[in-house]
Specification:
The protein is built from seven helices and eight strands. It is of the alpha/beta class.
Amino acid sequence: MSRPLIVTDCDEVLLHMITHYRDWLAESQEIDFDLTGPNFVKAMRRKDDGRVLEPEEIWDLLNRFFDTEMHRQTLIPGAAEAMAALAEVADVVVLTNLADHRREDRTRQLAGHGLTLQVYTNQGPKGPALKAIIEERRPSSVFFIDDIAHHHASAAEMLPDVTRLHLVGEPLVAPHVPCGLKQGHAHARIDNWADALPWLRERLN
């Protein structure tokens, strides 16, 4: 008999990323990244002249961060314990928006934090990738956890029967992230694992 399946994002759900990215930008790239505003695209400025970075510059820097700085990333509080508890009653996999060639790097990174999980990579909205995972694994039920509202919208549109939890584990950015629950695309918005784990356990049982 198939088990339930939990499909979770990584950055800001299992591992801190954005604050480490901000610190790296300041230390090595002479860039200020303001995490307190709602528009991250316009939140990165050159220290020398205050120029806002162009989107292509941001993508280049993100790629460089994931090429060389993934070792900086640290666990979201309670994430490892939650994954261990959930793995007792469900299969748990990671669906992360990284280029496919970084799948092994992400797998090793998570294993280094004690999280031995299968990793699926994706680019763009996550609904199609989530659908493909479900078709591959054919679970009895599915739970989707992500920190970005539009991924919940994509999942809700394609897979309305999937239980969707919007979780932003970085407290510096959580207040500025649009809420998938308020938008009608997630079943709950819970930004810490101490409360999210009981919510998931109740529905798994």
